[in-house]
Please model this.
Amino acid sequence: MRGHLRERSPCHWAIVIDVRDPQTGKRKRRWHSFKGTKREAQVRCAELIATVNKGNYIEPSKTTVADFVRARIDQWEAAGEISARSAQRYRQLLKHQIAPYLGAKTPRKLRPLDIEAWHTSLRDSVASRTIGHAHRVLSKALKDAAKNDIVTRVVTKEQPAPKVEGGEKAIVRDVPALVAALKDWRHHAVAMVALFSGLRLGEALALRWNNVDLDRKIIHVREALEQTGQFGVRFKAPKSKAGTRDITLPDILVEALREHRKAQLELRLQLGIGKLPDDALLFASIDGRPVPPVRVSTSWGEFAQSIGMPEVTFHSLRHTHASQLIDAGVDIATISKRLGHATPGITLNVYAHRFRQDDSKAAAAINAAVKW
Model:
């Protein structure tokens, strides 16, 4: 199989390869654009020729947006670049927000006007935040397409997603009243952990007793639980490197966990199933299996509705915890570490509306972030 280069301009090349038509047997020329040194272009040319020889070559003009994005999601998941839960969410965005509007087009023929029209169409059915998520998935795939010479431009960079107005996140306004009401909810201890430590639901459900030191009032976050359609319920590493952290517990949570442990021990004694293993989950079925996150989320929705807080999701408990820390004047670096955010900048972005209520807190937060 033959191929050669043509220089279009400095560091811009046309890679021309011969491809045999499987139906007619005739040779056809296929052109690929490449940006880089001549040596890099030669290497890429050799790679393309190798794919033709192996029968894996796909003509850029025949690859649809839907097929390409779907293949990239599969690859990102297989390579461990994204979690199974993220892959599931990406596939949902592809199915509902990308494929119906842009799926039949080829990546090479996408133009900024197509992206603009796509955003406009989505506005009638989904929120700006969802449009932004779908835009990022498509943009990530198109960046890969550019690296592999399938497209010459990443149109999602030229036509950005609509801006999301930073609104007030739902939080619990009367924490004492919620704590009192929680005593009647079956997963009350999980909610107390989220409310007074800021853990994500998956992190709370993955806690084991050997990672909880009630005497020293510390929780060691080392795992998270995720639930996907493909893999079911399984343990994984925290969301990011910063997610592996130690959290100091307030007295109200220490007391709640002591009561929860006591109740677990009494139940095991009644059932005659022996002592509680050191590595037992804090929140588990009687046979020790983890509680599915979706079950807790669904149950919370019903509970929140029953106490007149339908706007408060389980994740709102984490937001409530962060808001309490901000209102108490805790520095942004400490809040960021406690929440498991990768950088204080993420914390500032998520909770900007809380800092806007008091400009002096915003200035102090930025000063702390710079020093950190």
